[in-house]
């Protein structure tokens, strides 16, 4: 049964809600935050549509927009190579991190063994060391193993991450043991239980981890710059920065390359974020 | 189908915490046995040891005559239904039921045949392509039972399967489980803390407390002849009244009043007289009945149930529940006489809490 409310009263409530001071402040802050975040992206897009002579004209809408920069960048073999390198490295690292972080997180969350807490603390403690401090040991290790200037050398530090292990462990802890025990009684081995039962139940965490890992690897600059010395193995951020060093800062080309570089990250986010939402819905309906 | 035998089975956690203490139990082929007891009594641990989910600390477990102490759950060929269903939210009903056959060597057609048969038996055919989120609690529990059924196991283990359902659905599912057992004839071990479930479902009930088995028997045996105070109060609803009494030459005194009861020899002077509420009647029309056990008390509260009324009375400091037949509803504060036939009384030694021979 529905109750028919007084339309005037409803309108009055609506007006009061609309002019609530808290709401105004919230929306204002959100608007300012949005502007701060979006403006550089808009300028990046705008600059990518300007010719070389127009780039210091700070108008947001280009006077004579052109796609020549895009044609130039896309027809430049180096850009496509760097694009491939970044894609390959980010995809491999993401798959590896999701696989290994989930496995370690699952083990720490669902198996009782001596020293489990110590192992977890040891993994967590690596989060407190800044990347810059790790670059030298990574480099020495890569040099000894012959990984300098190889894909493997670029990828190995990101193939298993402490943050990912922590994230996945926390999510796996919320998976009821009954699910795993039911599968155990049905005769699945521990790997099958992890893969067929536990993993699908933490899809939101996997999606979040995949997004973070992909973005982290896609935008990584410092380590790929250190470990590579051949232009063939540059990733996109390293390659784009070389536009600035070698060719008297071609801003329009850098911005065009950066605009193109955002496309894969957008795709990854758009594809995976629906799994996050679906996962939250599943969790809400359970039991 | 198979027999299940527990010989001196025990479970010790950590530094000597005994969850199950050397229990012995023989479960016959096709029998429906219910383990019942309060939380922490060891009933679920016992079930999990039978399932193979819990390591056995001592004793022997046999299924179908074979010692299975060291076998994995799968090798025991048993199926288990969990309290929270444990059906996978990311799979459809068909996939969930079929998951029980994941490691089976049957071909796809045979698997589908089994899934369809189980779904048909449980009334799940229209829901086979749905996800668990689109099912009611009762349907989800049926899916869990279906997943157990398709494996054609030698025994079903149920771990408080109806606890998450509302009262109406629980009663309905209880009947369905009973019918399923009658149809399949498979051995069932069922754990619950609900004595109504135990009474209605079991061929035999195993009452447990603190890791020990207190009594094993049919529901009627346990109701009629509880061996101690714990079982007496645990089985039957409302729980049995226990009135403290002191043995005298002609009978007993209850709260300073002499009451005539023929007492058996043996036991201490301090007794507890047990009488079930349904046999403890407040009925003025039967007042003065010769030979009856009669106690006076003050009405504390009444619960009219329609065909009868539960009358809460205070006999001295002891609270008791009696029954008033028909539409007789005594007033609160009124002094009434509750009566019971001598044959319906249970006697317990107050010190040992063990049952004495009935009068």
From TrEMBL, chain A:
Record-annotated ABC transmembrane type-1 domain positions: 83-272
Protein name, UniProt field: Multiple sugar transport system permease protein
Coiled coil segments of this chain: none
GO BP terms in the entry: transmembrane transport
Highest taxon of source: Bacteria
Alphabetical keyword list: Cell membrane, Membrane, Sugar transport, Transmembrane, Transmembrane helix, Transport
Topology in membrane: Multi-pass membrane protein
Source organism: Devosia enhydra
GO cellular component, one term: plasma membrane
Matches recorded under InterPro entries: MetI-like, MetI-like_sf
Principal cellular location given in the protein's record: membrane
CDD domains, per database record: TM_PBP2 (cd06261)
Cellular localization per UniProt: Cell membrane
Sequence intervals crossing the membrane: 24-45, 82-105, 117-139, 151-172, 253-272
Family of this protein: Belongs to the binding-protein-dependent transport system permease family.
Keyword Iron: no
TrEMBL record, chain B:
UniProt topology in membrane: Peripheral membrane protein
Listed NCBIfam families: PRK11650.1
Cellular compartments per GO CC: ATP-binding cassette (ABC) transporter complex, substrate-binding subunit-containing
GO MF annotation list: ABC-type transporter activity; ATP binding; ATP hydrolysis activity
PANTHER family found in the cross-reference section: MALTODEXTRIN IMPORT ATP-BINDING PROTEIN MSMX, OSMOPROTECTIVE COMPOUNDS UPTAKE ATP-BINDING PROTEIN GGTA
Domain (ABC transporter): residue spans on this chain: 4-235
Listed SMART domains: AAA
Family as reported in the entry's similarity comment: Belongs to the ABC transporter superfamily.
Residue ranges crossing the lipid bilayer per the database entry: none
Alphabetic keyword roster: ATP-binding, Nucleotide-binding, Sugar transport, Transport
GO biological process, one term: carbohydrate transport
UniProt keyword annotation of Nucleotide-binding present: yes
Compartments where found: Cell inner membrane
Protein name, as recorded: Multiple sugar transport system ATP-binding protein
């Amino acid at each position: 049964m529905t109750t028919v409310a007084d339309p005037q009263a409803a309108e009055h409530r609506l007006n009061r809600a609309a002019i609530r001071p808290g709401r105004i402040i919230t929306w204002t802050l959100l608007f300012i935050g949005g502007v701060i975040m979006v403006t550089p992206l808009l300028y990046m897009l705008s600059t990518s549509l300007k010719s070389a002579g127009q780039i210091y004209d700070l108008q947001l809408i280009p006077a004579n927009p052109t796609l020549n920069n895009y044609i130039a960048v896309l027809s430049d073999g180096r850009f496509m190579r760097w694009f491939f390198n970044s894609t390959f490295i980010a995809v491999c690292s993401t798959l590896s991190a999701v696989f290994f972080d989930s496995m370690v997180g699952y083990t720490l969350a669902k198996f009782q063994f001596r020293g489990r807490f110590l192992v977890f603390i040891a993994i967590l403690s690596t989060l407190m060391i800044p990347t810059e401090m790790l670059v030298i040991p990574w480099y020495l290790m890569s040099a000894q193993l012959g990984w300098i200037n190889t894909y493997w050398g670029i990828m190995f530090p990101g193939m298993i991450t402490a943050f990912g292990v922590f994230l996945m462990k926390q999510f796996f802890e919320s998976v009821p043991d009954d699910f795993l025990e039911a599968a155990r009684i049905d005769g699945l081995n521990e790997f099958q239980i992890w893969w067929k039962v536990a993993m699908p139940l933490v899809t939101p965490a996997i999606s979040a981890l995949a997004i973070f890992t992909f973005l982290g690897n896609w935008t990584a600059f410092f380590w790929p710059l250190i470990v590579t010395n051949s232009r063939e193995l540059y990733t996109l951020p390293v390659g784009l920065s070389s536009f600035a060093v070698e060719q008297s800062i071609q801003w329009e080309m850098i911005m065009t390359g950066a605009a193109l570089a955002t496309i894969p990250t957008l795709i990854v986010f758009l594809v995976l974020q629906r799994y996050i939402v679906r996962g939250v819905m599943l969790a809400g309906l359970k039991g | 189908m198979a027999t299940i035998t527990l010989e001196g089975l025990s479970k010790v956690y950590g530094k000597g915490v005994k969850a199950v203490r050397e229990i012995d139990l023989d479960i016959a082929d096709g029998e429906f046995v219910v383990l019942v007891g309060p939380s922490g009594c060891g009933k679920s641990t016992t079930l999990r040891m039978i399932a193979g989910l819990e390591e056995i600390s001592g004793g022997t477990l046999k299924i179908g005559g074979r010692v299975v102490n060291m076998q994995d759950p799968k090798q025991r060929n048993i199926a288990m239904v969990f309290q929270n269903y444990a059906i996978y939210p990311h799979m459809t009903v068909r996939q969930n039921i079929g998951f029980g056959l994941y490691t089976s060597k049957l071909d796809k057609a045979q698997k589908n045949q089994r899934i369809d048969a189980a779904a048909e038996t449980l009334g799940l055919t229209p829901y086979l392509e749905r996800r668990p989120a689109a099912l009611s609690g009762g349907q989800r529990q049926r899916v869990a039972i279906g997943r157990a059924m398709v494996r054609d196991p030698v025994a079903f283990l149920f771990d408080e399967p109806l606890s998450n359902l509302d009262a109406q659905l629980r009663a309905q599912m209880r009947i369905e489980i009973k019918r399923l057992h009658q149809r399949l004839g498979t051995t069932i071990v069922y754990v619950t803390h609900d004595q109504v479930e135990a009474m209605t479902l079991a061929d035999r009930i195993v009452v447990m407390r603190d890791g020990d088995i207190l009594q094993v028997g049919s529901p009627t045996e346990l109701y009629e002849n509880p061996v101690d105070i714990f079982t007496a109060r645990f089985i039957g609803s409302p729980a049995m009244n226990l009135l403290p009494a002191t043995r005298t030459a002609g009978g007993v005194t209850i709260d300073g009043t002499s009451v005539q009861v023929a007492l058996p020899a043996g036991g201490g002077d301090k007794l507890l007289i047990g009488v079930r509420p349904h046999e403890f009647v407040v009925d003025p029309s039967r007042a003065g009945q010769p030979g009856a056990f009669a106690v006076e008390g003050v009405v504390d509260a009444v619960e009219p149930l329609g065909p009868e009324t539960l009358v809460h009375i205070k006999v001295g400091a002891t609270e008791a529940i009696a029954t008033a037949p028909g539409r007789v509803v005594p007033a609160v504060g009124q002094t009434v006489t509750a009566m019971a036939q001598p044959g319906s009384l249970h006697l317990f030694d107050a010190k040992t809490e063990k049952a004495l021979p009935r009068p």
